[in-house]
Structure formats: C-alpha cells, structure tokens
Write a structure and sequence with these properties.
Elements: H1 9-39, H2 57-65, H3 70-99, H4 103-119, H5 123-130, H6 135-155, H7 166-182, H8 185-188, H9 194-217, H10 220-249, H11 257-288, H12 294-329, H13 335-364, H14 371-382, H15 388-403, E1 407-412, E2 420-425
Antiparallel strand pairs: 1-2
C-alpha cells in the first residue's frame, strides 16, 4: 500500500487541477476569514463556544482592565495568524511546483495548505460568523484536509505505509473514513468531544509510526528526514495538549486574569510549535534533499525566520515597556513605547539578518563556505594530532563538509596486512 506511483499524463492533469481548485478555495476562505477578523468586532463567547486560543470581546476588555496594550496584542494575534498562513502556503506551493508529478507530493502540499488556511488558525471561525454562506466550501476543505493529514502522518517521507500490515491498513482506512464524515468537527467545538480525542489518537499513532519507521525500516538518509518529522509531530501533539489544557483550566467564558496571562505566553508558544511541522518538512528538504528544492526555499526560510523573530521581539518589547511606563508614569498607554520599540527593531534588523543568514547557511548550505579555508584548518590541526583514529574521523568530517559525498571510503596502507578499509555513510 504505497503512494509513490507516477501518474499518467491525463490523471496528472486532473490531479493538478483538483489540487489547484482545492487550494484556491482554501486560500480564499483564509483571506475572507482574515478580512472578517480585522474588520468585524471581536466575538463574544457569552452565547456561543469559542476556540480556547482565540481572542474574544471579553478577553479584550479584561486586557484593558489589567492595563495591558490590548490593541497591540490584538494586532499581534492577527499578524501571527497571517505569517503562519503565508509560510504554509509558500512551502506547499514550492513542493507542488517541483514535484506535482507523483501522488504523495500532492497530498503533502495540500496538507500544508489545509493547515495554514483553516486547521491552525481562527480565521475559519471568523468565516462562520461573518459569511454563513461559505460554510459549505469550508466543510469541503475540512473533509479533504483531515484525510490528507492522516496520509502524511503514516506515509511520510517516502509514500510507503510503515509498518505495512493488514491491521495498520485498516487503521488508516478507519481514520480516513472518520475524518471524511466528521469534517470540521474536531476543531470547531470547544468541548472535548470524541472527534477531538480521535484526532489526538491520530497524532499519537502517526508519531509512533514515524518512530517505528526510524528504528526498523529507514536507511541513513531517511532516518535524518524522520528525525525532523518526529519533531514536527511532537510539536503538533503539544499544541493539542495545550488546547485541551486551555479549554479545561482557562475557558474563554467566563474570562479571567489567569486566562489572559496564560494566553500571553501560550500564544507565542503555539505559534512556534505550529510552525514546527512545515519547518521540519522544509528542513528535511533542505538538509537531506527530500524532493530536491533546497535553493528555492533559502530566502523564504531566512526572511520568514527573521520576520518571526523581529515580530515577536517588537510586540514583546511593547508589552514589557508599556507595563514599565505604566508603573512609572501612571499612564495606561504611551506612544513613546511604540516609537522606542520601532527604533530598537530597526537598529537590530541588519545584525539579525546576518545572524539568521549565517545560521541558515551553516546548517543547510555548507558548500557556501570556503572549502580551502576548511582544508587549511584541518592541515593545521593534523600537524599536532598523533591518534590515527581521531585523525581518520577528522578527515572524514572535512571531506563530508567540503565535498558532501553520499559515501566515503578511506584506505590506509599497512605493511603487515594487505589493506584496511574504513567506510562511512554520509547522508
């Protein structure tokens, strides 16, 4: 049971058209939700359930009563959702552009569109409130998106089910059928309903499948890919646990000061954790050549990370400085805080850009660095090294860093035996 088959020319055109149509609908709904979130008043949770992570009218009033910059925090809420969505869509589009000729690449890319458009954002709730006529298309996106998530969890990275056993196949089919029927249920209700629990079981099962694949099936290169995917799935599982924690301990209604202070640290944490899944797929692509699109994403990754860091620093600075100014001057809000935060971020931009670019290049683009300098450093260190084993390891590391071969064979001549062969697999 695999998803690695190449499509015929006619089937390929139909699959691409279906992907484009579904993705356009999802992105259009995301844009409609973003517009509704910015233009419409915040929802009240007094008469209807709200998402535990969403900012409500009651939360906004509580923030003001606590002396917090409610308007700035609202902008941060919305900007975080926009940034995550754009990153998801960019990653999905690049995968579709380069590898839309096989089934599993289409599934993975649509899965990322689904997460960015509706699953990991409150924009779908805004669509439900502001545009009831769009609930039908929104349900269709959920019905397509949840099964795509099931397939990615169990088939990543090579499109094969692991372990490929009858009970595992039946389990995947049951997950697919459940979420196709359930539609938007797992995320639309505040209650800890059976659908949400099944979703939690799905994430746990997918994590177990990836761990099993890593330990029993994968080769050296796939093991490195699977490490990143396990990290992303673990991030998704933590987000779900935080969602349940907020729903039980700090529900949206009635709101409280404890809920607001929890949101102030939980919200940035879940933005980071939500980004883990697309980031880990991107890291797998970049570092281990999955789907071979590394250079295309380099600038997106660099400036996406830089924007996230500066945005988080900007709004954190506003919150901290606002609290300090309120305690010193007694004013609830001061424009000087925004001016100072803006100046600090402007001053840090170039320095942070260089640091982020250096981190990306060192972690994923080692060929950018001067191979000659690397060899000179090795030669200087080798003059003082007397341990043959340590020298062998160092030499293999230098060759790996400068040439990046798939496999290294080091032959050491020995006067007492014909030869000694040392092999090292390089992913």
């Amino acid at each position: 049971m695999t998803l690695t088959n190449r499509l015929s020319e006619r089937s390929l055109l139909l699959a691409r058209a279906f992907w484009i149509l579904g993705s356009l609908v999802a992105v259009a709904l995301w844009l409609a939700g973003a517009y509704a979130n910015f233009s419409a008043p915040l929802p009240s949770c007094a008469g209807s359930p709200c998402d535990p992570f969403a900012l409500s009218l009651e939360d906004f009033a509580m923030m003001r009563s606590l002396g917090l910059p409610a308007r700035s925090l609202f902008v941060f809420w919305q900007a975080g959702g926009l940034l995550i969505g754009v990153f998801f869509f960019a990653t999905a589009g690049l995968i579709f552009w380069r590898r839309s000729d096989d089934i599993f690449s289409l599934v993975v890319s649509f899965f990322l569109v689904f997460l960015g458009a509706v699953a990991f954002t409150e924009f779908d709730d805004a669509v439900n409130r502001a545009f009831p006529i769009l609930r039908g298309p929104l349900n269709v996106v959920f019905i397509l998106g949840w099964p795509a998530m099931v397939l990615v969890f169990f088939y990543f990275p090579d499109g094969r089910l692991v372990p490929d056993r009858p009970w595992m196949r039946w389990g995947v089919l049951l997950f697919l059928a459940f979420f196709a029927v359930q539609g938007a249920g797992p995320v639309r209700s505040l209650q800890i309903n059976p659908a949400a629990l099944v979703l939690l079981v799905l994430v746990g099962s997918g994590l177990w499948s990836q761990v099993h694949r890593y330990r029993r099936v994968s080769g050296p290169a796939q093991k490195q890919q699977t490490k990143w995917v396990i990290l992303g799935l673990a991030g998704a599982a933590i987000v779900m646990m935080l969602w349940i924690r907020m729903a039980i301990l700090h529900p949206p209604y009635p709101t409280s000061a404890e809920r607001i202070y929890n949101l102030l640290w939980v919200r940035p944490v879940i933005i980071i954790l939500i980004s883990f899944l697309p980031l880990t797929i991107v890291f797998s692509i970049l570092r281990y050549r999955l789907w071979d699109i590394d250079i295309l994403i380099r600038r997106t990754l660099t400036y996406g990370m830089l924007t996230g860091i500066l945005l988080a620093g900007y709004f954190s600075g506003i919150v901290i400085l606002q609290v300090l100014f309120s305690n010193v001057t007694g004013e609830a809000r001061s424009p000087l805080v925004t001016v100072l935060s803006t100046l600090v971020i402007a001053g840090l931009f170039n320095s942070m850009r260089r640091r982020v670019q250096d981190f990306i290049d060192r972690r994923f683009f080692r060929s950018k660095f001067d191979a000659e300098q690397t060899l000179l450093h090795f030669a200087a260190a080798a003059r003082d090294e007397v341990d043959l084993e340590a020298l062998t390891v160092a030499l293999l590391g230098v060759v790996d860093e400068t040439v990046q071969p798939e496999r290294i064979s080091l032959w050491l001549s020995d006067s007492h035996s014909p030869a000694e062969i040392r092999n090292a697999s390089v992913s």
